[in-house]
Amino acid sequence: MGISGRKEKIIQAVVDSYIVSCEPISSAEIKENYLPDLSSATIRNELAALEEMGYLAQPHTSSGRVPTAEAYRLYVDKLMPKRKLSKSELKVINSYFDHKITEIDTILKNTAKVISEITNLTGVAVIPDVTNAVVESVKIVKLNDKSALVIIVTNLGIMKDATVDIASTLGDDYFTVASNFITAAFKGRTIGEIIEPGDLIEEIKKEYEKLFEAIIKVIKDYVENGGASDVVLEGSTKLLDQPEYANVGKARAMLGMLEAKEQLVPMLKSPENVSLSIKIGKDNEIGEGMPECAIVTANYQVGGVTIGNAGVIGPIRMDYSKVVSVLDYIGKTLSDMPDSDEGKEANDNEEK
Predict the structure, then answer these.
(1) Which of 30, 157, 185, 295 has the lowest tally of Cβ within 10 angstroms?
(2) Radius of gyration of the chain from its Cα atoms, rounded to whole angstroms
(3) How far apart are the first and last CA of the chain?
(4) CA proximity to 179, closest of 227, 137, 236, 133
(5) Residue 191 to residues 51, 186, 196, Cα–Cα distance (Å)
(6) What is the pLDDT confidence band of residue 203, given thresholds at 50, 70 and 90?
(7) Which backbone phi and psi does 150 adopt, to 5 degrees?
(8) Are residues 107 and 249 located together in one domain of the fold?
């Protein structure tokens, strides 16, 4: 059953006030600061009704009201105003992405950092599982007599560049031929297929055995050191600045949840067709047994390909309008980033 427009205005006033002050708000404060056209008696009656409906709570008999998770849900779905970011906030975001970044995990780590910096909440990002990424090319560039640079490009972008040891007798032409040969062998195959090679790969390895093993090791090392779905946290201690977590028990519960990164992955992920996900509350939206909090995440794309999710974790009393504006602007910034150019990347690294 829907609620009246007047009740919605009162809920919006309570939520807006509590986001800023983290203090219960009285009927007199609502009238003075938000709804001067309503009488105090009318506001008191509406507050009592909203409390019975589960949208508001009264911490103490003599205190004002505070919003519940249900109120935040209505606020996010219907009442939340669109907020513009300040010039200084836009400048900070742009500073993280104003230079060329090619590796997927670097993009997402920067995203988590800038989200945390702008919102003053804990920034999170999910680095996608690359085992299903499809290899597009493998380029090998000789650096010196003892090492070469290997650049592995997938449909998600440059997965990894790394140096490998080589025999000093190998000429430059060898690496051109080897790059073309290995690209032909690996192109169109997933990372999962490559790190568990079958008969086909074993046959190819006869001619380029040492080089293949070096490249496979690079890929395995990447997967084992974070290539599978991982969670990046930035600004975890900022949670302790929030009044809700002045209570030691609540703070310990939240920090414990952040430390159990593997439990965060399903909560942070959202379907690819959902650009923005806002989860509010304790058991109904976040997960059974988890501390009460809110998680706001967005799917991010670079060059039309989804690279992962990022957003914030914080108290349900968060400035949702600002958070959504930050995530939306970062999404637009990432989508406008230039496509990866592995040739330029190889030359830049070679010059180094």
Answers:
(1) 185
(2) 26
(3) 65
(4) 137
(5) 54, 9, 9
(6) low
(7) -110, 125
(8) yes
